[in-house]
Design brief:
Helices cover 41% and strands 18% of the residues. By secondary structure, the protein is of the alpha+beta class. It has a single domain, classed as Endonuclease I-creI (Roll), CATH 3.10.28.10. The protein has a 4-stranded antiparallel beta sheet with strand order 1-2-4-3. α1 crosses α2 and α3 runs antiparallel to α4. The N and C termini lie close together (5 Å).
């Protein structure tokens, strides 16, 4: 059964907003169809999983250091969370809005406005993570 304690949920979202403020990226794919995306990459698997659980959407994958262009021997594997598409990006930004700084808020507004004004490529359906703890 999912945890329904609203205080814990707010605390986790506040933590996630702080992590995204420091480590996250708000961008788009750079093509004419401009699909917006949010990305968080870290070597700390537990932190990325906790973020994923807090926001409840997106995809998670491990990036192998050996496959990174210009990789050095001391590079570590990293974990990447991402959400693609206007719907998913807007959802996560709304969840984290109260904890984002001015620069991140301005970037979110800029990317969402730019992408909303362009024809949208069909993004994959938003994946919602359901915790059964």
């Amino acid at each position: 059964m999912a945890d329904t304690d609203p205080t814990k949920r707010i605390r986790e979202l506040a933590w996630a907003a702080g992590l995204f403020e420091g480590e996250g990226c708000i961008t788009h794919n750079g093509h004419n169809d401009a699909v917006p995306k949010l990305i968080l990459v870290m070597t700390d698997e537990d932190a990325v999983h906790r973020f994923w659980n807090a926001v409840g959407v997106g995809r998670l994958r491990m990036r192998l250091a050996a496959r990174i262009k210009h990789s050095k021997p001391n590079y570590q594997n990293s974990w990447e969370w991402r959400v693609l598409g206007l719907e998913g990006v807007q959802y996560v930004i709304v969840l984290l809005w109260f904890g984002l700084g001015r620069r991140r808020r301005a970037r979110a507004k800029e990317i969402i406005a730019a992408c909303a004004a362009r024809p949208q490529r069909r993004a994959k359906k938003m994946t919602v993570k359901v915790s059964m703890r």
